[in-house]
Design goal:
Blueprint: E1 6-11, H1 18-32, E2 40-46, E3 51-52, E4 58-59, E5 63-64, E6 72-77, H2 82-86, H3 90-101, E7 103-108, H4 112-118, E8 126-127, H5 134-140, E9 145-146, E10 152-155, E11 158-161, H6 166-179, H7 181-190, H8 206-209, H9 216-227, H10 235-241, H11 246-257, H12 261-279, H13 284-290, H14 296-306, H15 311-318
Parallel strand pairs: 1-2, 1-6, 2-5, 6-7, 7-11, 8-9
Antiparallel strand pairs: 3-4, 10-11
Helix pairs in contact: 1-6, 6-7, 10-11
């Protein structure tokens, strides 16, 4: 791995989210401390001598874009809410287009992906952004394959991340690329981050994403499912509990929750398994049983399909309170 300093350039503008700028900046700063001849040089650039963030905090950049010179190792574009993001003028977009060509890698935090898209940097690539803005990004820029689920996405030398704090996760991943896994873990600990999320982790809980039913009988059934994940939760069994025919129950449940009964049950089981893997010492076999997956293999298939990681790998990355025992599977 190279020991030469990496020049990180973070692009800000009026209305930018402050954490989109300061989060990555702190990650790279901590990573570079105490590394003789290496580490990071961090600079903020902007169209104006002073920019005001969405929270009112003012940032004085190291340079304005018209005076910025020299090489770029990592170019990071911060994000902002819709109106402020769309107010960015063409001068900055043109500058981004040129700066990206001379950068080793280009990245965006949150809705900074829209600026990369306007510059044509994401054309023909896979990308992500804040989950609430993914549909808008896909609609405006059909030439981009928008992935709404991952925390961050890499396509060649271009990286995009999900909402706000996901920029910290992406920055940790870039540090790991540059300096190794131990360096990234050290930074996560120094910043008191409970977990260091890989790009494939979902942006938000699938279980919490489901709608709460307006019909009292279905809402009560949702509560009962949560407390009885190790029971028979087939459509037939749930329909009987709801005093409906299986066909009518499946139709009503989907209309009320926005999810089929099977998908809802799997999401709730997956959510419970995640919580147990993060905060308990239970063996993976026991977790599979408690959550209603039955077998470890069924649990593994669900994790692979939705989280793109094994239960073992998930626990290694996200356990917050207990060490992982290799005997757990």
């Amino acid at each position: 791995m190279s020991t030469a300093p990496h020049r990180v350039v973070i692009v800000a503008f009026d209305g930018v989210q402050a954490l989109d700028v300061t989060g990555p900046s702190d990650v790279f700063d901590f990573a570079g401390r105490g590394r003789p001849g290496g580490g990071y040089e961090i600079e903020v650039v902007a169209p104006a001598p002073v920019v005001t963030t969405s929270s009112g905090v003012r940032i004085v950049p190291h340079a304005t874009i018209d005076r910025f010179r020299g090489r770029i190792d990592t170019l990071i574009v911060a994000g902002a809410t819709g109106e402020r993001r769309d107010a960015v003028d063409e001068e900055l977009i043109s500058w981004l287009r040129g700066a990206s060509r001379r950068a080793r890698r280009t990245a965006s935090v949150c809705t900074g992906a829209f600026l990369l898209a306007r510059a044509g940097i994401l054309d023909g690539r896979k990308a992500t952004t804040h989950w609430a803005a993914c549909d808008d990004l896909a609609r405006r820029y059909p030439e981009i394959t928008v992935l709404p689920d991952p925390i961050h996405v890499r396509d060649g030398d271009v990286y995009t991340s999900a909402g706000v704090s996901a920029g910290i996760d992406l920055s940790l991943a870039l540090v790991e690329e540059d300096l190794g896994a131990q360096a990234a873990l050290h930074v996560a600990r120094e910043l008191v981050l409970f977990v260091r999320r890989p790009g494939g982790q979902t942006q938000f809980s699938r279980g919490l994403a489901a709608q709460a039913a307006s019909r009292p009988s279905i809402r009560e059934l949702q509560d009962w499912i949560t407390d009885h994940l190790d029971h028979d939760l087939s459509v037939t069994a749930l329909a009987a509990r709801a005093l409906m025919s299986p066909r009518n129950f499946a139709r009503v449940f989907a209309a009320e929750t926005g999810s089929t009964p099977a998908a809802y049950v799997e999401a709730m089981r997956l959510e419970r398994a995640r919580m147990l893997l993060e905060g308990s010492e239970e063996r993976i076999e026991e977790i599979a049983r408690q959550c209603g997956f039955g077998t470890v293999e069924t649990l593994r298939r669900s994790f692979a399909r939705h989280l793109h990681v094994s239960p073992h790998g998930y626990r290694q990355r996200f356990a917050t309170a207990v060490p992982f025992s290799p005997a757990a599977g």
